[in-house]
Design brief:
Layout lengths: L1 E2 L2 E2 L14 H15 L2 E3 L4 H26 L21 H9 L19 E8 L8 E10 L15 H13 L14 H14 L3 E5 L2 H6 L2 H4 L5 E5 L4 H9 L3 E5 L4 H14 L11 E6 L11 H10 L3 E5 L14 H4 L9 E5 L9 E5 L1 H10 L1 H4 L6 H15 L6 H22 L3 E5 L7 E2 L3 H4 L1
Parallel strand pairs: 7-8, 7-9, 9-10, 10-11
Antiparallel strand pairs: 1-2, 3-13, 4-5, 6-12, 11-12, 13-14
């Protein structure tokens, strides 16, 4: 049976098998996934919040004091925007203030040059500064550190192994770049293979790929939506979704993060009142959500969203940039994680930049939808095609995940990621850290608060 498009007995164990009455089975299915759906957004302790505000306040006060010293020539000015006669400043003064007085103090912690693949450990180029972090000099030494900031979820970002060898072979066969768009001379056999494989992996009729993940959202949402259409967007959606929504010239309404009551209220208003002034029905209503939210570590309540989508006859656009490959028993994202039917998601979007260790993105769905996007998308018409070695890297890693290489390496990596995620979250919580997000989310936001601790 199905509940909100989610079949029972799926592999992650959220819904149990059983021959019971339809109504009770549906209720049990809903209760099961909600029972296992655990997210934590712990409130900041009052003392930590007060001390943090005071710390930044002190930094700002000292920053203004140092600016006064600079104006009187008592302190060296290391960075100052050149003034051109007749031109306004290129950026606001406070942006410059923040850089020279706050960020510069801890600049040595950021933008560290990496000289290795982003594996579990990375090599950093050691550097020193003799002018309080304004300039750096390399010492020629390397520093091996733990990698806690990479989206290399399954460890495919490697410089050796089957993926690297296949990418090397593709480079020798096709070259590095194509210098043409897909609709001109940039449509290679390797691109078609990638699209067929992506559709097979996701369980959809068809798929189309693009060379840039950000542009997959920002350049294609305007193709699907337009004037007279309504977009209901989660308040914490990625910037690419926000930009695509704005470029579409649709009316955009924001609902509270992962709040189904807020989403349903917006849907009810849209259906009852229609468009402003004219009160005509909306041409289309599109719900925009992400699988995993990259800054909060939360997972979309997909079964509930699908239920509302069906109830109010809206379309659903699901961005699986962080969940594809990293969620579900076989890495097929949050759709598999909740045991939902891929056909219940009208537009499935994702990127190859995380779990597949490549770049670019995809949109998958019905063949009619993909054919329309292929002939109207700015990314397909004007943008350069995906680089062949990048396409091959994606194909190779996806085949390993699917087990098409004849091994179980892909399954092992998926299971190891799931175990690592829960273990890492549990140990951080036991150590007293404040972390956000879902217990199964590989994105683990750790709140540090104090600038002194950041450095």
């Amino acid at each position: 049976m199905k509940q909100n498009g989610c079949p029972n007995g799926h592999s992650n164990g959220f819904i149990a098998n059983g021959n019971v009455h339809i109504a009770s089975e549906r209720e049990e299915a809903k209760n099961d996934w909600e029972k296992n759906y655990r997210e934590s957004f712990e409130e900041t302790p009052l003392l930590a919040a007060v001390i943090t505000y005071i710390s930044y306040g002190v930094l700002v006060i000292f920053g203004y004091f140092r600016d006064i010293l600079r104006n009187y020539g008592l302190e060296t000015i290391h960075s100052k925007e050149p003034k051109i006669e007749g031109f306004v400043p290129l950026y606001q003064s406070f942006e410059n203030f923040y850089t020279r007085n706050l960020y510069i103090r801890i600049r040595d912690c950021w933008n560290r040059p990496i000289c290795s693949v982003p594996g579990a450990e990375v090599d950093l180029c050691d550097r020193v500064s003799h002018d309080y972090n304004w300039n750096f000099e390399f010492t020629g030494k390397k520093l091996k550190v733990l990698n806690l900031g990479s989206y290399n979820y399954l460890g495919f970002a490697e410089n050796k192994g089957p993926c690297a060898e296949a990418a090397k072979a593709a480079t020798l066969k096709y070259g590095v770049g194509i210098c043409s768009s897909r609709q001109e001379l940039g449509n290679l056999k390797i691109h078609q293979e990638l699209e067929h494989l992506t559709a097979e992996f996701l369980g959809t009729e068809a798929a189309i790929t693009f060379g840039m993940g950000f542009a997959t959202n920002s350049m294609n949402i305007p193709i699907i939506m337009g004037k007279g259409c309504l977009i209901l967007s989660d308040e914490l959606n990625h910037a690419s979704l926000v930009l695509g929504s704005r470029l579409s010239k649709s009316t955009v309404k924001v609902f509270k993060h992962n709040d189904m009551k807020s989403l349903e209220n917006k849907l009810q208003e849209a259906v009852i009142y229609g468009q402003p002034r004219s009160h005509r029905p909306w041409k289309k209503i599109l719900i925009l959500v992400e699988g995993i939210y990259s800054m909060e570590g939360s997972i979309v309540r997909l079964p509930d969203v699908i239920a509302l989508k069906k109830k109010y006859k809206a379309y659903l656009y699901l961005d699986e940039a962080h969940s594809i490959g990293a969620m579900g028993a076989t890495g097929k994202g949050v759709v598999e994680y909740f045991g939902c039917n891929p056909k219940d998601v009208d537009i499935m979007m994702g990127t190859f930049t995380k779990s597949f260790a490549a770049s670019g993105g995809y949109i998958a769905g019905s063949k009619k939808l993909i054919d329309f996007i292929r002939t109207h998308s700015h990314s397909a018409i004007y943008a350069t095609s995906m680089s062949p070695p990048i396409a091959q890297q994606t194909i190779s890693s996806m085949k390993i995940i699917m087990g098409k290489d004849g091994s179980n390496q892909g399954q092992k990596r998926i299971e190891q990621l799931a175990w690592n995620t829960r273990y890492f979250r549990r140990r951080l919580h036991e150590l007293g850290f404040i972390i956000y997000g879902n217990q199964d989310s590989p994105v683990v936001p750790l709140l540090i608060f104090l600038p002194a601790k950041v450095a």
